[in-house]
């Protein structure tokens, strides 16, 4: 194997860089805070809580209540499937990576959501952000070779505990580095949700634009990489796919 191919195999794409994941999980925290505080008490980031609520309503025979929580679940499932289909469609165009386009779509959608009046049905925002969270979760999978989720933190908490114990036991720097990276993912997520919740009390529906600013920065950072120093790597799949 040549030196060039070796470097290419080990290089991480811009969409796999750790700082991109920190920014995206901050936006993920904003999504969760926004739908729960401002748009009907729904969790858009992951579906465990929504399915628990669905099951509770089913057990009580409250079919309308169950349907209320079934809608975000179907939106999330649809977002996963749509992200797979669109990733195949955008690749032959050789303009940008699907990862880049997705972040651009997120920025546009969140701008629009900020203009939707409070009188509009909450399901508009719920379904939109469920779609986006699902597509983001399915698209951004590994940060520099480490499995990462950018929309929820359950696995990050597990990894924090596991790697901290391993570090205390073996004193290996890589274990502490893994602990630190997962801890920062949790911190950025909590920060996004906290900032959004505070802004909801001040600016209401416009609080979602907190995520928009982050997404615009990430979009142009990834687009620059796609059109310049990674233009010959558009065919490469990010690790984890």
The whole-angstrom Rg is 19 Å
Q: Summarize the biggest pleated sheet.
A: 2 strands, antiparallel
- Helix percentage range: over 70%
Indicate the mean pLDDT.
91
Architecture overview:
The chain crosses the membrane at residues 20-37, 66-90, 182-200, 206-224. Keywords: Membrane, Transmembrane, Transmembrane helix. Pfam families: DUF1275. This is DUF1275 domain-containing protein. The protein is mostly helical and 241 residues long. It has one domain (21-233). It contains 9 helices and 2 strands, in the order ααααααββααα. Strand 1 (142-143) and strand 2 (146-147) form a beta hairpin. It is globular, with a radius of gyration of 19 Å.
Question: Which descriptors would you attach to this protein?
Answer:
2 strands, disordered N terminus, 241 residues, two-stranded antiparallel ribbon, mainly alpha, 2% strand
Q: How do the helices and strands line up, and which of them pair or pack?
A:
Blueprint: H1 3-10, H2 18-37, H3 48-59, H4 63-90, H5 98-115, H6 122-139, E1 142-143, E2 146-147, H7 154-170, H8 173-203, H9 209-227
Antiparallel strand pairs: 1-2
In short:
It contains 9 helices and 2 strands; from the N terminus they run ααααααββααα. It is mainly alpha-helical. Strands 1-2 form a two-stranded antiparallel ribbon.
């Amino acid at each position: 194997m040549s030196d060039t191919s070796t470097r290419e195999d080990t290089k991480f794409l811009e969409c796999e860089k750790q700082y991109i994941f920190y920014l995206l999980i901050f936006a993920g925290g904003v999504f969760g805070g926004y739908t729960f505080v401002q748009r009907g008490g729904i969790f858009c980031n992951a579906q465990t809580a929504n399915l628990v609520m669905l099951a509770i309503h089913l057990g009580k025979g409250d079919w309308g209540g169950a349907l209320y929580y079934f809608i975000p679940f179907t939106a999330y499932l649809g977002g996963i499937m749509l992200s797979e289909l669109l990733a195949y469609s955008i690749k032959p165009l050789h303009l940008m990576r699907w990862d880049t386009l997705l972040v651009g779509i997120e920025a546009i959608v969140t701008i629009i959501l900020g203009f939707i009046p409070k009188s509009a049905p909450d399901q508009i925002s719920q379904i939109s952000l469920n779609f986006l969270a699902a597509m983001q979760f399915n698209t951004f999978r590994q940060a520099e070779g480490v499995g990462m989720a950018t929309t929820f933190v359950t696995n990050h908490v597990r990894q924090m505990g596991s790697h901290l114990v391993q570090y205390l036991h073996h004193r290996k720097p890589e274990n502490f580095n893994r602990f630190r990276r997962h801890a920062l993912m949790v911190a950025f997520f909590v920060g996004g949700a906290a900032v959004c919740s505070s802004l909801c009390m001040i600016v209401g529906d416009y609080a979602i634009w907190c995520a928009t600013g982050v997404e615009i920065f990430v979009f142009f950072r990834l687009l620059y990489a796609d059109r310049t120093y990674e233009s010959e790597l558009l065919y490469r799949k990010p690790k984890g796919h």
